[in-house]
Amino acid sequence: MRVGFIGLGSQGGPMARRIALGGFETTLWARRQASLEPYADTPARTASTPAELAAASDLVCLCVVGDDDVREVLDGETGVLAGLEKGGIVAIHSTVHPDTCREIADKAALQGVSVIDAPVSGGAPAVEEGTLLVMAGGDEDVVERCRPVFATYADPIVHLGPLGSGQSAKILNNLLFSANLGSAVSALELGEALGIARDKLIEVLNRGSATSKAVGSISMFGGTLEGLAPIAGALLQKDVRHAASLAAAASAPEGAVFTAADAALEAMEHKR
């Protein structure tokens, strides 16, 4: 399978490298030439437009930031869909609304192109270890065709159901992570009110039964969410908003998880 990859950021870049070094014919595209330079030591080729990349690919993986970014690289005369041949596949690794995936799939189907959603979790360290989590949604046979490519950087690769299922799972994952951040900060503030130094309580929480990735993240940034906010605030805000949209569409109550998530967003000055 020939693979095109767009979105060479802190997570997508290592994914693309693993694919190229994993024996798959790989083509890369980026808006800035500087983003392509780190891959000069790999067998990967580069393309001048997303359409050119797609014309050289059977599978195009997208790991850009959000819904509008995905649409931008897919649409138009120089977009992915303009170059991808019938039978091709688009895998959306970005975390976007499930409706965005369905909208894209309807358009792609008109030219015989399949779309799956395959958001990921674990970050660059998991990619390097080949243990990134892929949450896939879409036709099972299409997911299985992509599995050998995903396996260059991911384990497990979980097929959750129809198109959009992977996005729903990832959004819920990020909703709960946000809630864990909010709960952890609240506990640290209560600890200070009770006379327990924040750094000492973090040490206890990191080693106790209450530990979580959220506690570890807060610990890395000095015990507050101020340092994490520039990195994760806008992204988590986007995903909590998506989660609220999904809950509203399902007529499901938001519940305690949203209360805690909102506390984290407010602490990062990215109120929902």
Main sheet specs = 6 strands, parallel
Could you spell the SSE succession in H and E letters?
A: EHEEHEHHEHEEHEHEHHHHH
Low-confidence stretches: none
- Tally of helical runs: 12
Write structural notes for this entry.
It contains 12 helices and 9 strands. The mean pLDDT is 97. It has 272 residues and is an alpha/beta fold.
Keywords:
globular, alpha/beta, 272 residues, single chain, three-stranded mixed β-sheet
Give the SSE layout.
Elements: E1 3-6, H1 12-21, E2 26-29, E3 45-46, H2 50-55, E4 59-62, H3 67-74, H4 80-83, E5 89-92, H5 98-109, E6 114-117, E7 120-121, H6 123-129, E8 132-137, H7 140-150, E9 154-161, H8 165-193, H9 198-207, H10 213-220, H11 229-249, H12 256-267
Parallel strand pairs: 1-2, 1-4, 2-3, 4-5, 5-6, 8-9
Antiparallel strand pairs: 7-8
Helix pairs in contact: 8-10, 8-11, 8-12, 11-12
Give a quick rundown of the structure.
The chain is an alpha/beta fold and 272 residues long. It is 51% helix and 14% strand.
